[in-house]
Amino acid sequence: MQQRLIAPSLSGSVTIFAYLSLIASLPLLGLWLAGKPLSAYLQFPPRPHPVEPAAFSWPVFVFTALAVVACLAPFISKILAARNIPTVDSRRSRRFSSFGWLGLVMTGLTWFLAWNRFEWFEPLQGFTFTPLWLGYILTMNALSLRRGGYCLLTHRVGYLLALFPLSAVFWWGFEYLNRFAANWRYVGLEDCTAFQYFVQSSLPFSTVLPAVCSTVEWLGTFPALSRGLDRFRPMPSATARSCGRAGLGVGAFLLLSMPIWPHLLYPFVWFAPLLLISGLQTLFGQQTPLIKALTTGDFRRLWTFALASLVCGFFWELWNYESLAHWEYDIPYVGCCKLFEMPILGYSGYLPFGLICAAFADCLKPTHDRT
Predict the structure, then answer these.
(1) What is the pLDDT of residues 239-279, one digit of tens each?
(2) From CA 175, how far away is CA 269, in angstroms rounded?
(3) At a CB cut-off of 8 Å and minimum separation 6, what does 359 contact?
(4) What would the 3-class secondary structure string for the chain be?
(5) Burial of 362 from C-beta contacts in 10 A (0-12 / 13-18 / 19+)
(6) Cβ partners under 8 Å of residue 29, min gap 6
């Protein structure tokens, strides 16, 4: 199959540019309206502005947990209700590819080096996260190819390669928002120059979207994981588009307000960008994944992206745990019951993050389009 390098379409490029412009400007506008100084938030490296975390609160913890369960319940109930419906799976297992074995070796070796402190490896100790995730991406593609006879690396390599630079830009946007919400902070990068910080951060940032999209392909070979999620009642197209445009306004307001009330609005680091990118895609006439799911009643693809993000989130937190350069969390009200560095309820943020990944991936080319 002939491969070609994929780049964002004109409308996709405009959407990304508009998204980044709003991400950059709205929190600063909120600070200005609140009469707070801007200079502390414009320094580079982009370390978060200090915010004293709010104390743990059992009522907030319980309320948040119930809200997460309520959001997931309709999807889980659909899957359980459809458990007796047979799924057609004509896949047959193939040999595990050589690049998969390479990925496993890369991941295992880098994991060992990341969690130990060898003197001879000290100059490279802060760069282990990127080869860990390159190994993961190779492994996931090999697992997809083995089960389904298809993977991004063999069938859409141009698309996979284009995800890397897009991913770096994509995650820098979240790093910028974190300056206002101060949900996480980095340890082990304090002595880096601005250039060193940029390089050492951009390399692992570039693996986020390729890892999530590769995991989506693998999870897609298990039809039972999303069985029944194509049976929701569809929303009228006009109503869905109106919701998309309204979401743009709500997302903009949340970003404007986040620097003013960081303890209250910190969860919207993961929801405001979703509303923003979905609203912009609707505004510019693109087929946004969220609006498509609403108008068709088919949430299988979005569910798979959410699960893929959660799977990647587990490994992000695992491999971060004992690494020299790593992040730590300061999450208001619910910062207890940690699994690695992440409070257990914090993992729920990976679910909407997966939907944002789906929207950005579609700015290049829809993942389900395999031509």
Answers:
(1) 888 888 899 999 999 999 998 888 888 889 999 999 999 99
(2) 10
(3) 274, 277, 278, 281, 288, 289, 290
(4) CCCCCCCCCHHHHHHHHHHHHHHHHHHHHHHHHCCCCCHHHCCCCCCCCCCCCCCCCHHHHHHHHHHHHHHHHHHHHHHHHCCCCCCCCCCCCCCCCHHHHHHHHHHHHHHHHHCCCCHHHHHHHHHCHHHHHHHHHHHHHHHHHHHHCCCHHHHCHHHHHHHHHHHHHHHHHHHHHHHHHCCEEEECCCCCCHHHHHHHHHHHHCCHHHHHHHHHHHHCCCHHHHCCCCCCCCCCHHHHHHHHHHHHHHHHHHHHHCCCCHHHHHHHHCCHHHHHHHHHHHHCCCCCHHHHHHHHCCCHHHHHHHHHHHHHHHHHHHHHCCCCCEEEECCCCCCCCEECCEEHHHHHHHHHHHHHHHHHHHHHCCCCCCC
(5) buried
(6) 256
For the chain, the C-alpha Rg in angstroms (whole number) is 21
Per the structure block, which two tokens stand in for 312? 């990647």
Band the pLDDT of 142: cuts 50, 70, 90.
very high
Highest mean pLDDT among 46-50, 205-209, 289-293: 205-209
Q: Which two tokens stand for residue 62?
A: 């319980």
Q: What percent of the chain clears pLDDT 90, i.e. is strictly above it?
A: 62
Return the amino acid letter for 281. Answer: Q
CB neighbour list of residue 355: distance below 8 Å, 6 or more residues apart: 274, 289, 290, 302, 305, 306
Asked if the model's pLDDT at residue 223 lies above 60, the reply is yes
Distance CA 369, CA 371 (A): 6
Question: For the chain, which residues make up each domain, given as ranges?
Answer: 10-41+53-81+151-364
Residue range 37-63: average pLDDT?
78
pLDDT (tens digit per residue) in 67-85: 999 999 999 999 999 877 6
| Tokens 């060193």 found at | 196
Q: What is residue 366's predicted lDDT score, i.e. its pLDDT?
A: 45
Q: Is the pLDDT of residue 50 over 80?
A: no
